[in-house]
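User: Can you model how adenosine-5'-diphosphate sits in this protein?
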Amino acid sequence: MNKRRGLLVVFSGPSGSGKGTVLKEAMKMSDNLTVSVSVTTRAPRVGETDGVDYIFYSKEQFESLIQKDGFLEWACFCDNYYGTPKERIEALLSEGKDVILEIEVQGAMKIKETCPEAVLIFNMPPSSEELKKRLTGRKTDADDVIKKRLDTAVWEISQAEKYDYIIVNDRIERAAKSFLSVIEGEKCRPLRNRAVLEEYK
Ligand code: ADP
Ligand code: 5GP
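Assistant: Here's the modeled complex, given as C-alpha cells:
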C-alpha cells in the first residue's frame, strides 16, 4: 500500500492567542508534524533566527518571489508581507508528514480555495481581556503595533466560522491535545481513506 499522504493543516488565530505556544506543545506530543517556515518582511524579534522562525526578506525580495509564483499563499498583515513558500510543501505531504501552516485569515481563505483538502483550525483566546494580556505580556511589540493587532483581531474572530474547527486556548496542554485530536479525527474520514476502501473492492 502507498504511504498515506500527510494532512495540510491551516492554523490561524489573533496575534497573541497562543498559536506558536500550542504548536510547540503539540510538537512535543507528536513526531509527525512539520511547521512550514514562512517568509516575512517584518523585522526579526529578539531571539528569532533567520531560516528557523521565519525567512526574513526585504520588501523587494518578497515582491520578486511573488512575481516568480513562489508562494502557495501570501498576505499583508499589519503593514508587513507574510507568505508560505511553495517549495517543499508537496514533498513533505507526499512523505506522509502533516504540514502546519501557521498563517493569518486572508492567507487561510486562499488555501481553503486552492487546497480544498486542507483542514482549517482557528485558535480562539478565552476572552478579549486575556488576549490583550497575552499580547502585552509577551513584550515583543510596541504599543502601536499591539493596538493594530488587537484591532485586526476583531475582524479575524468574525471570520472564525469559516474554519472547520475552533479550539479555545485556555490551557496550553488541553489546546494542544485538541489540536492533535482534530488531526487524528480528520485522518479517519472516508475521503482520506480511499486506498484502504479500494483494497476491499
Ligand atoms: P501567537 O503565536 O498566537 O502570536 P504566542 O504563542 O506567542 O501567540 O503566545 C502569546 C503569549 O501568550 C505568550 O507570552 C505565551 O506564553 C502566552 N500564552 C499562550 N498560550 C497561553 C495559555 N493557554 N495560557 C496563558 N498564556 C498563554
Ligand atoms: P507575527 O508577526 O506575530 O509572527 O505574525 C503575524 C501574523 O502573520 C500571525 O497571524 C501569523 O500567523 C501570520 N503569518 C505568519 N506566517 C504567515 C504566512 O506565511 N502567510 C500568512 N498569510 N500569514 C502568516
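A couple of observations from the model: The chain is about 40% helix and 20% strand. Strands lie at 8-12, 33-35, 39-40, 55-56, 71-77, 80-85, 98-102, 119-124, 165-168.
User: Helpful, thanks.
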